[in-house]
């Protein structure tokens, strides 16, 4: 029986099919981003528990990595689990009404669902660990969370904002001991900047601004 399509026609059909699949995937990704709840700049975001970074970081001195345990080792910084919160709150303020969702989470074996304040579209690749390893302090993107009773977004997180940093990363570098320490930045000399760039083995800005750096 004769073939309905020649080999060249089959190739064209396959390529068209692949192209259509890519377009659909891209459209779904854009739809996911456009349909995501809008996070207004400087506006506190409602959470299952009104967690105060100011109280936990500034008053109690809790290190960022205690709750965001994977920030140094993976792309995702991690969100505090019920067990992490209960390390303290199985005893402290146990009967506080605002902590009821925490105890319900344990009782029902259902994780707390925190609302992402800093959320990027799926087509953007971002890795917390590489930024921390290269000297970018938490406050460069998240602001002075130690002064926030309720978490809010202080940076636009759009493409131009990210590129501005990648074009001139030296201004955003911190010493390793200052990366998770919330403090007002102090001016550093050109020699100190050069030393930090050498220590962190920063790539040239051309590589940092390549499309493939963030879109893979």
UniProtKB/TrEMBL annotation:
Matches recorded under InterPro entries: Cyt_c7-like, Multihaem_cyt_sf
Query: What domain of life does the UniProt record list for this protein's source?
Result: Bacteria
Domain (Cytochrome c7-like): give its ranges.
124-216
Q: Which residues cross the membrane?
A: 12-31
Keywords attached to this entry: Membrane, Transmembrane, Transmembrane helix
The answer to whether the entry has keyword Ligase is: no
**Which Pfam family would be a valid example here?**
Cytochrome_C7
Any idea what this protein is called? Quinol:cytochrome c oxidoreductase pentaheme cytochrome subunit
Which source organism?
Answer: Cupriavidus pinatubonensis (strain JMP 134 / LMG 1197)
